[in-house]
């Protein structure tokens, strides 16, 4: 297994500067933070089978040297570009206020009601596209590189609990509050604030140290008995629905619970919620690599039942 810390260290720092400088960042965008997506993809990369790793290296632009995590935030960076505006509703799911459930046929649509236009639909669609990768190079119907980047990003988003939130408050985006001393909102607390506070309080602001902790918990720590069930999946539609349900349940029980606009969230909220953020990042990574190993792996005949 590749050590997560090694992957992170091997990431060309200049590339990050280049990427972050090359795109306009939209404040308040719906997304795990850069760190959240990066960690999800680094976890996935650490568990890739050789044939999946080779396919991914082939699909990524040469300058990232096979490092998927370098481009896992790309779908956030382009979602407001004219060409990609259609992808904007694919980052989240709005569920009925206070229902605390996810129902694909009821909830997976864009604001105009177009069906399948939500993060759960997107994961199914891009997995289905990638499952054609092995059919050869000449007649590919889809842009496989984009499909890989979208899938990798959306597997992060579907695990961010507030990305499967309530409709009226836009997944917590309109619940303005303070995170310790600065202004924030509930959505952003789960996207980024908890991760940044964890990094600065416990990991000397070093993402690779946080990743090592997550890695330890996956392989022989508190999640060691769970991670095989996390990645168990025969029918992708069924699995994606479950992942979205897990998110709205965490959002209800731990995200929204006890929170109102205008309040200040601090130590008590941080301490009790941080383990959920770390677990969701780990689950996103483990399930992403499960899909990638299936669509690119040699045992492809055992692949998912997905619509083509
Ligand atoms: Zn996103």
TrEMBL record:
Q: What is its EC number?
A: 3.1.30.1
| GO MF term (any one) | RNA endonuclease activity
Q: Which residues cross the membrane?
A: none
Instruction: Describe the reaction catalysed, as an equation.
Output: Endonucleolytic cleavage to 5'-phosphomononucleotide and 5'-phosphooligonucleotide end-products
Q: Which Gene Ontology terms describe the biological processes this protein takes part in?
A: DNA catabolic process
Keywords tagged on the record:
Disulfide bond, Endonuclease, Glycoprotein, Hydrolase, Metal-binding, Nuclease, Signal
Quick check: keyword Metal-binding in the entry?
Answer: yes
| Listed SUPFAM superfamilies | Phospholipase C/P1 nuclease
- Family the UniProt entry places it in: Belongs to the nuclease type I family.
The entry describes its oligomerization and partners as:
Monomer.
Q: Under which name does UniProt file this protein?
A: Aspergillus nuclease S1
From which source organism is this entry? Lotus japonicus
């Amino acid at each position: 297994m590749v050590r997560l810390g090694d992957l992170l260290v091997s990431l060309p720092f200049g590339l990050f500067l280049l990427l972050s400088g090359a795109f306009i960042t939209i404040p308040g965008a719906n997304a795990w933070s850069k760190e959240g997506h990066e960690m999800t993809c680094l976890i996935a990369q650490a568990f890739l089978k050789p044939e999946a790793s080779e396919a991914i290296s082939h699909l990524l632009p040469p300058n990232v040297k096979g490092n998927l995590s370098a481009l896992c935030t790309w779908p956030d960076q382009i979602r407001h570009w004219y060409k990609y505006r259609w992808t904007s509703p694919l980052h989240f799911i709005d569920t009925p206020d206070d229902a605390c459930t996810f129902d694909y046929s009821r909830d997976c649509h864009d604001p105009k009601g177009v069906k399948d236009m939500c993060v759960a639909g997107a994961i199914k669609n891009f997995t289905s596209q990638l499952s054609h990768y092995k059919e050869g190079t000449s007649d590919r119907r889809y842009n496989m590189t984009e499909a890989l980047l979208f899938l990798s990003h959306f597997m992060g988003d579907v695990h961010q609990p507030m990305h499967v939130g309530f409709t009226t408050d836009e997944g917590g985006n309109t619940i303005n509050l303070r995170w310790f001393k600065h202004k924030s909102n509930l959505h952003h607390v789960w996207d980024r604030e908890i991760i940044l506070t964890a990094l600065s309080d416990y990991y000397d602001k070093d993402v690779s140290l946080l990743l090592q902790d997550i890695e330890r918990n996956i392989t022989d720590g508190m999640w060691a008995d769970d991670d095989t069930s996390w990645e168990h999946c025969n029918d992708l539609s069924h699995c994606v629905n479950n992942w979205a349900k897990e998110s709205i349940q965490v959002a209800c029980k731990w995200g929204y619970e006890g929170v109102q606009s205008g309040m200040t969230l601090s130590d008590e909220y941080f301490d009790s919620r941080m383990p959920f953020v770390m677990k969701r990042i780990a689950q996103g990574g483990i399930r992403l690599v499960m899909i990638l190993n299936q669509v690119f792996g040699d045992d492809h005949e055992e692949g998912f039942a997905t619509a083509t």
